[in-house]
Specification:
alpha/beta; Rossmann fold; GMP Synthetase, Chain A, domain 3; 2 domains; nine-stranded mixed β-sheet; four-stranded antiparallel β-sheet; 11 helices; binds adenosine-5'-diphosphate; binds zinc ion
């Protein structure tokens, strides 16, 4: 049932003590980095006075911009010869960020991923097809070592090359896959084109969906298509990578491993904690990592705390599915819209197939939203009236969800370019 029973079911008071102890070590470590040494002296912070999570609030949060400015060595807390790996992400502006790992950091991260996978039911007898990109991206290697530690047969197939993915799924009868949600939907078109049925011809039992926001409706669709259970997997390279928070068998929020991180959920404008249950930005302090300590790191990810104990018995608090990012909110004719709201509507509409995108344009100083959506091929064979009704239905449901009326374009499957990495759902042409 548990990978590490003692740590997963540790009483909260003991967990607090463990957090305090690890935080104190982290503070001493942070003092060794150029970035935090400067920050502490600028804000007159004595790192020795930060003894428990409540004391953290005097420290200004660290942002992605800080990490970029600190490239390459300002966040490094150990001599370079202690470092055995780095991961780096390029981000949208192209200035990279880098995270370093000591051998012990990697060992702890591997354990964190193993614990996560175990909570989602992955076991030694599983065949684990890791369909995420290997390399600087943490989703590939991070999950890989966790799955190996459990003892699963781990296939490092990486992202893309859909034909080969399908062939492996069929030939090795993979029982667990780690996949980007939009790609899981897109792949079904190709599986069908190969004359295969994902339920009949494959043996998938567990699907780990991670690395991009997706709605509950998308999860249910993926489960339906593959005849498997799909679990939400959350992580970001800045605070290790996958395995930061993970769903257990109950699929109601993701346990965030609080012996590795101190969790805060704050109002992104005021930075004060949001009331329990309300959506805010996830802020994380790493307390179980040596090479790159991060204090109050602003993830940009929006979620809420799931209240109450989880029936699985794990005490680590749960966060909701990620609702969006502080930077992916669209402002359209003055209305705030998250792409996830659009996805939720589309994926709960029968007849809608697996891919969509939102295009924003400006014409004669007027903003226009076009929602392109692929629909089931059989609908194009039916009568036109039916198509028109579907289009109207989508339009009116979108209107009640996002309060603006987009133009809706129905397309055949395969019309919208699909990505093997994270999907680009919104194309904003208004600035061009
Ligand atoms: P990785 O996916 O390997 O962690 P990045 O560090 O580039 O790669 O991306 C991290 C970001 O991806 C997170 O900050 C979050 O916005 C998004 N993300 C990761 N997992 C999920 C998830 N399960 N649901 C929603 N968004 C996610
Ligand atoms: Zn649970």
């Amino acid at each position: 049932m548990y990978w590490e029973k003692q740590l997963e079911t540790i009483p909260r008071e003991e967990l607090s003590l463990l957090q305090a102890e690890r935080l104190q070590k982290t503070m001493a470590n942070a003092q060794k980095t150029n970035f935090y040494r400067r920050l502490f002296s600028r804000h007159k912070i004595d790192p020795e006075k930060i003894k428990s999570p409540e004391d953290l609030t005097v420290i200004p949060p660290t942002t992605k911009a800080d990490l970029r400015e600190g490239f390459p060595f300002d966040f490094l807390a150990v001599p370079l010869e202690e470092v055995v790996r780095l991961h780096s992400s390029s981000g949208t502006t192209g200035t990279p960020t880098v995270i370093y790992y000591t051998a012990e950091d990697l060992d702890r991260w591997t354990n964190q991923v193993a614990r996560s996978l175990y909570a989602a039911g992955v076991r030694k007898n599983d065949v684990f097809q890791n369909m995420m990109s290997y390399g600087l991206f943490t989703g590939g290697l991070g999950m890989h070592y966790g799955a190996e530690r459990i003892g699963a047969l781990t296939i490092p197939i990486g992202a893309g090359n859909s034909k080969r993915q399908i062939w492996f799924l069929k030939f090795f009868q993979s029982t667990t896959i780690h996949i980007i949600p939009s790609y899981a939907l897109f792949l079904t078109q190709l599986i069908k084109a190969e004359g295969l049925d994902p339920r009949r011809d494959f043996n998938i039992r567990t699907i780990l969906l991670g690395s991009e926001p997706h709605s509950e409706e998308t999860r249910r669709r993926v489960e339906e298509i593959y005849g498997a259970k799909a679990y939400n997997s959350y992580g970001l390279s800045e605070v290790n990578g996958p395995g930061v928070a993970f769903e257990c068998a109950f699929q109601e929020g993701m346990h965030l491993w609080e012996d590795y991180y101190i969790l805060e959920i704050v109002n992104p404008h005021t930075l004060s904690p949001v009331p329990p249950g309300e959506v805010g930005e996830i802020v994380l302090t790493t307390i179980y990592r040596d090479a790159t300590p991060l204090l109050r790191y602003r993830t940009g990810d929006l979620a809420s705390l799931v209240e109450g104990p989880c029936p699985c018995g794990r005490v680590h608090r749960r966060i909701s599915r990620i609702q969006g990012r502080t930077d992916d909110m669209l402002i359209f004719r003055g209305v705030n819209i998250f792409p996830m709201q659009i996805e939720k509507v589309l994926m709960s509409t029968p007849g809608v197939d697996t891919n969509y995108r939102v295009i924003l344009e400006r014409e004669d100083y007027q903003d226009k939203m076009i929602v392109e959506v692929e629909i089931k091929p059989e609908l194009f064979l039916g009568d036109l009236q039916k198509l028109a009704r579907l289009r109207e239905r989508i339009q009116s449901e979108l209107r009640s969800e996002i309060l603006v009326t987009p133009e809706v374009v129905l397309l055949e499957p395969g019309s919208i370019p699909a990505s093997e990495g994270k999907a680009q759902r919104v194309i904003d042409r208004r600035q061009l």
